[in-house]
Design goal:
The complex is a heterodimer of chains A (87) and B (206). Chain A is of the alpha+beta class. Chain A has one domain. Chain A contains two helices and five strands; from the N terminus they run αβββαββ. In chain A, strands 3-2-1-4-5 form a five-stranded mixed beta sheet, with helices on one face. In chain A, a hairpin with a 5-residue loop joins β4 and β5. Helices cover 50% and strands 12% of the residues of chain B. In chain B, strands 2-1-3-4-5 form a five-stranded parallel beta sheet, sandwiched between helices. In chain B, α1 runs parallel beside α5 and α5 crosses α6. The longest helix of chain B has 19 residues. The relative contact order of chain B is 0.15. The chains are: A alpha+beta (87), B alpha/beta (206). Chains A and B meet through α1 and β1 of A and α1, α6, α7 and α8 of B.
Chain lengths: 87, 206
């Protein structure tokens, strides 16, 4: 059954609380202008950029595995394409 | 509502446009602007009155005319967007003094499509987004930057990276309760509120 998503202060706070996590555990793979960047959560600067998505994903996996974290691969629209967890 | 910070968004509401609309409202929130958008659930009379109010109260108008053509066989083109664009340009041209400071951006999918269907708008600020949210973010940010030369705005790349993270945080938080379709169909007014809370927290931490 379909449910309508409604904003509430409690839900807004729950989403916002992830904007600045206490411990960094996610590494985002984000497409930029003609390159793929790996960005740790809470930051707007790329750790490294690559010419292909696969190179960026491999690098993100390496560091996520070290930190027992998660890789979030984004589509070109910004939505989530894939997640790889090392938790 | 503060005129200087208000942005009237006149755009399509179809499913294909939603990724662009979400990126657009997030960009405006990230740049400390207030998006105003008329919900389609209103009756036509209420809707047009709401739009007139937005036009009176918004310094910026962003109009996407990319659906000014049939999107599939048998579908009719939509003319609400060019109609509302005309009202906004008219307000800037003939309205009271503050309305003469209005800034209007026209978005389309392809660069020269508008010249074939509404050539009289040549001379306005027109940008093509190619149906790609990232390009739209960049075009809107750069247009706002050119109209607010005394303020240094965050880069389009910074906004795009933040938008991707917000998308993940929103889905991660709500997906245990809601399906992907429920999330996709969220009212844009609710989406703006979630964006607002998230951006405020994200910027505080920077």
């Amino acid at each position: 059954m379909r449910k309508k998503v409604k904003y509430s202060k409690r839900r807004g706070e729950a989403v916002a609380s992830l904007a600045h996590p206490k411990t960094i555990s996610k590494f985002h793979v984000i497409v930029g202008e003609s390159k793929w960047s790996v960005v740790k959560e809470g930051s707007t600067k790329a750790l490294r950029s690559f010419s292909t998505a696969n190179q960026a994903i491999d690098y993100a996996k390496e560091i996520a595995a070290e930190k027992t974290g998660e890789v979030v691969v984004h589509e070109e629209s910004g939505f989530i394409k894939d997640r790889v967890s090392f938790l | 509502m503060r005129f200087e910070n208000n942005v009237f968004i006149n755009c399509p509401f179809d499913d294909g446009y939603r990724p662009l609309l979400k990126a657009l409202v997030f960009t405006l929130k990230y740049l400390d602007l207030v998006p105003h958008i008329s919900e389609t659930t209103s009756s036509s009379n209420i809707r047009i009155n709401q739009i007139k109010k937005f036009i009176r109260n918004c310094k910026y108008g962003i109009h996407d005319i990319s659906r000014n053509k049939a999107m599939s066989e048998g579908e009719l083109p939509r003319f609400n967007m060019p109609y509302e664009l005309g009202l906004d340009i008219g307000a800037a041209e003939f309205g009271r003094s503050i309305l003469k400071t209005k800034k209007i951006l026209i978005l389309d999918t392809e660069r020269y499509h508008y010249q074939k269907v509404i050539s009289d708008i040549s001379g306005q600020d027109i940008s093509a987004h190619n149906n790609e949210p990232q390009i739209l973010v960049s075009k809107v940010r750069n247009w706002l930057s050119s109209n607010a030369s005394e303020i240094v705005l965050p880069s389009a790349n910074e906004i795009w990276i933040a938008y991707n993270q917000f998308t993940d945080d929103l889905i991660s938080t709500l997906s245990p309760t809601y399906s992907a379709q429920d999330l996709n169909e969220m009212q844009i007014s609710d989406y703006i509120k979630f964006s607002n809370d998230w951006v405020r927290r994200f910027k505080l931490a920077k």
